[in-house]
Write a structure and sequence with these properties.
By secondary structure, the chain is an alpha/beta fold. It is about 35% helix and about 25% strand. It contains 4 helices and 6 strands. Strands 1-2-4-3-5-6 form a 6-stranded mixed sheet. Helix 2 links the parallel strand 3 and strand 4. The longest helix is centred in the middle third of the chain and has 16 residues. The termini are far apart. About 25% of the residues are buried.
Length: about 130
């Protein structure tokens, strides 16, 4: 997804000022991001996706647009085939699934390709 995607292995310091999607590449990276968010009031939106998921691919341009509008929100993309344990923890059985987390706890979710609902819930939980 172009310039809004990061494949770094640790949480980038630029996350504080620049809106981006952190593409999960390793369990260590996931744990680092998740642990860093436990002590923060920032909203973490976990985008559960898969390469074979048509609705996920259809949502990509909308997600990119939404991400650019909310620099104060941290977005993480998790491939359910690579991180089955993380997907299982959050019961991401239907894709796309967007799980909202604050201080390490799930507070809400959007299941399916529903960009308007995604925006509404980001607006609701971002502060």
């Amino acid at each position: 997804m172009g310039s809004n995607v990061s494949s770094v292995h640790d949480v980038p310091s630029s996350m504080e000022t620049k809106s981006l999607v952190v593409e999960m590449e390793s369990r260590r990276q996931w744990r680092s991001l998740f642990d860093s968010m436990k002590g923060s009031n920032k909203l973490l939106v976990i985008d559960f996706t898969a390469a074979w998921c048509g609705p996920c691919k259809a949502m990509e341009p909308r997600v990119k647009e939404i991400v650019s509008r909310y620099p104060e929100v941290v977005f993480a993309r998790v491939d359910v085939d690579r991180f089955m344990d993380v997907a299982g923890t959050y019961r991401a059985n239907t894709l796309p699934a967007f799980v909202f987390v604050k201080r390490g706890e799930e507070i809400d979710r959007v299941v399916g390709a529903k960009p308007d609902e995604l925006v509404y819930k980001i607006e609701t939980h971002r502060v």
